[in-house]
UniProtKB/TrEMBL annotation:
Superkingdom, natural source: Bacteria
Ranges where the Response regulatory domain occurs: 4-120
Annotated organism of origin: Sphingorhabdus rigui
Pfam family, one: Response_reg
UniProt-listed PROSITE patterns: RESPONSE_REGULATORY
SUPFAM superfamilies, A to Z: CheY-like
4-aspartylphosphate sites (modified residues): D53
Protein name: Two-component system cell cycle response regulator DivK
Length: 121
């Protein structure tokens, strides 16, 4: 059975790239462009992994990860965080919030796929 991945990414080009890449490797993918809808969509879609952009409009990806960790239904879902704006200490804050992995954009295809497979198999 194919693994389900939800991508929370406001950038249309990045969302398409991640979606196409994962679908080409037999993942079932759901994209969410508005972080405010991410938690509700995660409950409905029930993904095996969430790929979370950290720099989202309206809500921080870190805040979403923290909210997931406090939610009984969502806390078991691993999160792979991705961001283009990695500052000093960002990775530590992201991992402390509950992410299982962290990638800095731009991400190479192989690095991205290895990170996804490392989390969901």
């Amino acid at each position: 059975m194919s693994k389900k991945v939800m991508i929370v990414e406001d950038n249309e080009l990045n969302l398409k790239l991640f979606t196409d890449l994962l679908r080409a490797h037999q993942f079932v993918v759901e994209g969410v462009r508005d972080g405010r809808l991410a938690l509700e969509q995660a409950r409905t879609f029930a993904p095996d992994l969430i790929i979370m952009d950290i720099q989202l409009p309206h809500v921080s990806g870190i805040d979403l990860i923290e909210a997931m960790q406090k939610d009984v239904a969502l806390s078991p879902i691993p999160v792979l965080a991705v961001t283009a704006y990695a500052g000093k200490g960002d990775e530590d804050r992201i991992m402390a919030a509950g992410a299982k992995g962290y990638l800095s954009k731009p991400v190479s295809v192989m690095t991205f796929l290895e990170a996804v497979r490392g989390i969901v198999g």
